[in-house]
């Protein structure tokens, strides 16, 4: 049977939860302009690489570590550990747009959780200034405080991450709505594998090899005609 924690996750990762994910393509718009993403097959392959080799992988590691640090009993150590992790997450954003993407969504998520699901141990957003609060750190922190299981939290986060990128592909006319759902369903094994890997990894495992994804993010900053903020 469904429980309260599952319903909470469904709300957090619903497209209706207004954190602004629709405004970002994670460089896919620039990849389309460069001819690297041309159709539904190349879009699906691009997203799979992001999940396994790029920001999706690092986000999963950051979320898991945030979940662990949010469980520390001593308040000062807990907050200091989360602030340091947030700084690391911001530093891993390899372009100004990627930093905006994760920090703005993280701030929005934090504010919404604080309003809809308040918790006395949830630190204020000001504690993470001036660098900002990356989305995976915000999700991991709130998830632990609300007794969310790590594996379910990771799976929901990565499913929403992939869903946002597929939705960007729809807006860019790379894929139709029906085909988008077929491709998203086909990414399920990739999402589950990334969930397992992220939960088992530590900060020493951070890194990636999605160089072209990072390059597209940088190129998007000077792209003249665009729909998305990243």
Distance between the termini: 39 Å
CATH class: Mainly Alpha
How many domains, as an integer? 1
CATH H level: which superfamily? Urease accessory protein UreF
What Rg, in angstroms, do the CA atoms define? 17 Å
Can you characterise this structure?
- The model has no long low-confidence stretch (mean pLDDT 96).
- Helix content is 65%, strand content 0%.
- It has a single domain (36-216), classed as Urease accessory protein UreF (Orthogonal Bundle), CATH 1.10.4190.10.
- It has 230 residues and is mainly alpha-helical.
- It contains 11 helices and no strands.
Short description:
The chain has 230 residues and is mainly alpha-helical. Helices cover 65% and strands 0% of the residues.
Topology at a glance:
Blueprint: H1 4-12, H2 28-34, H3 40-53, H4 55-69, H5 75-91, H6 96-116, H7 135-145, H8 150-171, H9 177-186, H10 188-200, H11 211-220
